[in-house]
Design goal:
The structure holds two protein chains of two kinds. Chain A is mostly helical. Chain A has twelve helices and no strands. In chain B, strands 6-7-8-3-9-10 form a six-stranded mixed sheet, sandwiched between helices. The chains are: A mainly alpha, B alpha/beta.
């Protein structure tokens, strides 16, 4: 926001394009293309106007003429725009990392009762997983941000509403991943831990979880990637992360193709880095055992 | 007063009766070898003694502690009873030394230095002190089982249970494990060993126990057990497994 204090955050870009397709920088290119065609066609002025309008609609709607100047770092305004887009990176990462950390903790706490012999504890696990898993993330974000303050009589910031919604929604999946990972550990490991007098929490902490986490690391990496992508949904409640920044820039620059392409690339780079990190971690943990 | 007393112990898995009113006394320092066909309840018998399986009926008393299913009783006997498993069950993500010091540090409150000292003493006793910093997968089966024995010894138990300790081993590795067990037997450890190694049994056992269909069919000192088994089932079994 600091870069473009004049922006009105309430405008959403899709409406803008549908409503005022003739505005902005796309016009000169279109006119050029249209006049060439018109010279070859008939004299009827009605037909001319129709074709012109049709071409205008097509070219403004899905122009193949790139206008990279909008994010060209060699120009001053392009550089400012690019910096504006990248400034969302901080919150995208902070949001995702905070949410994944919380969701891993909740997921583990929900998974453990699911492995219990006690049917009440197992029931708690099932109910939690089934309910939380059934709510779409976007719906949960809206519910937490707009609904929770009313229900619980608290005020919640956009950031924490986003973290809470993402973490809750992901925790059901984390719980299932942990349960599968822990169940995959051989029964003999519990028996060996029992035979050297380890209690339940020590058995989990030193014997079962270290092995289970090695096995579920690829799945946990997947969830982190998923979380990075889902954090874009928090833009709907006004979180100033990558997607929100892109939406706001589109509102002023009318260059959705270029700006959203940059947005795609931002997520792509972020996620490739995370994937590489997870693979590195996997390799490192593997060599520990050999 | 026997250190282990089982009286009329029954254990069922669903409709299958794994132990059918089994009674057995083991005195301190006694070496008991349990044999019998597979599915006869041998493993279940020793697993009940350290409560890896909870018995359904009858009483088990270990060193004066009655196993009534309470957590307190469970914790007390776990400290007294060590176990060696058929599949070794070493912790694969921990180095050998860490496998050995985990129990003493977490359950016995030993410092890392104390635990390491104990661990190295027992690793030396099972003759592989040089493997301390390796991981289980880097060791042969025989070496892994010796580590498992050392791990049990590090808890300084009064009783050691062996559940077919050589059954998962390649033939050439069986003797290195049996040698360690013979050494242990000579040191006066109370041992209950489920095994098919009759040479070992002859050498170390004070008492032979033959089980079939969840019952103890015959209990005898090895000399009479091997030369003059009373029951037909036992004669039949011995005929099948003793080398011709």
């Amino acid at each position: 926001m600091s870069v473009f204090p004049h922006l009105t955050a309430s405008l959403s870009p899709p409406d803008l394009f549908r409503g005022s397709g003739s505005g902005g920088n796309a016009i000169p290119d279109c006119r050029h293309g249209a006049s060439l065609v018109l010279n070859k066609s008939g004299n009827d002025s009605g037909v001319r106007i129709l074709i012109l309008l049709a071409l205008l609609a097509t070219l403004t709607g899905c122009s193949a003429d790139w206008g990279w100047y909008v994010v060209d770092p060699s120009t001053k305004s392009g550089w400012i725009n690019l910096k504006f887009l990248l400034s969302g990176l901080y919150y995208t990462i902070l949001l995702s990392v905070t949410a994944i950390l919380i969701s891993v903790v909740i997921g583990l706490l929900v998974a453990l009762p699911g492995l219990s012999k006690n049917p009440v504890l197992r029931g708690f696990n099932r109910v939690y997983v089934e309910i939380v898993r059934a709510v779409p993330i976007l719906v949960l974000i809206l519910w937490v941000y707009y609904g929770l303050p009313q229900v619980a009589d608290i005020s919640i910031s956009v950031f924490w509403a986003g973290v809470l919604a993402l973490a809750l929604s992901d925790s059901a999946f984390e719980a299932e991943i942990f349960r599968a990972g822990i169940q995959s550990i051989d029964k003999g490991q519990y028996e060996a831990a029992h035979s050297v007098s380890l209690n339940y929490s020590d058995t989990m902490r030193f014997v079962i979880l270290p092995q289970a986490i090695r096995r579920i690391l690829p799945a946990l990496g997947n969830q982190l990637v998923y979380m990075l992508k889902m954090s874009s949904l928090v833009s709907v409640i006004g979180m100033q992360e990558l997607t929100r920044k892109a939406n706001e820039l589109v509102v002023t620059e009318y260059r959705p193709l270029e700006i959203y392409t940059i947005l795609v690339l931002e997520y792509l780079v972020l996620i490739l880095i995370v994937s590489a990190g997870v693979r590195w971690l996997e390799r490192r943990m593997q060599t520990d055992e050999r | 007063m026997p250190i282990i007393q089982l009286s009329n112990v029954t254990k069922r898995f669903g409709t299958f009766t794994a132990l059918d009113a089994v009674s057995l006394d083991v005195s301190k320092g006694e070496r008991v070898v349990v044999c019998g066909p597979s599915g006869s309840g041998k493993s279940t018998l020793i697993r009940c003694i350290n409560q890896l399986e909870v018995h359904d009926a009858g009483t088990i008393t270990v060193d004066g502690v009655m196993l009534d299913g309470s957590k307190a009783a469970l914790n007390r006997i776990r400290e007294k009873v060590g176990m060696v498993f058929q599949q070794f069950n070493l912790f694969p993500h921990l180095s050998i030394i860490d496998n050995l010091i985990l129990g003493p540090m977490r359950a016995r409150g030993k410092t890392r230095e104390e635990a390491r000292e104990i661990a190295m003493r027992y690793l030396t006793r099972v003759r592989i002190p040089e493997q301390a910093d390796k991981f289980p997968r880097q060791l042969s089966g025989g070496q892994q089982q010796r580590v498992a024995i050392a791990r049990a010894l590090c808890m300084e138990p009064e009783i050691l249970l062996f559940d077919e300790p050589t059954s998962a081993l390649d033939p050439e590795m069986i003797n290195e494990v049996l040698d360690v067990m013979v050494g242990l037997a000579e040191s006066g450890m109370t041992m209950i060993v489920v095994t098919h190694e009759m040479g070992f049994a002859r050498k170390v056992a004070d008492t032979m126990v033959f089980m079939d269909h969840g019952e103890i069919v015959e209990t005898a000192p090895p000399e009479t057990f091997f030369t003059a088994p009373k029951s037909l089932r036992c004669q039949d079994f011995l005929q099948k497994i003793l080398p011709h």
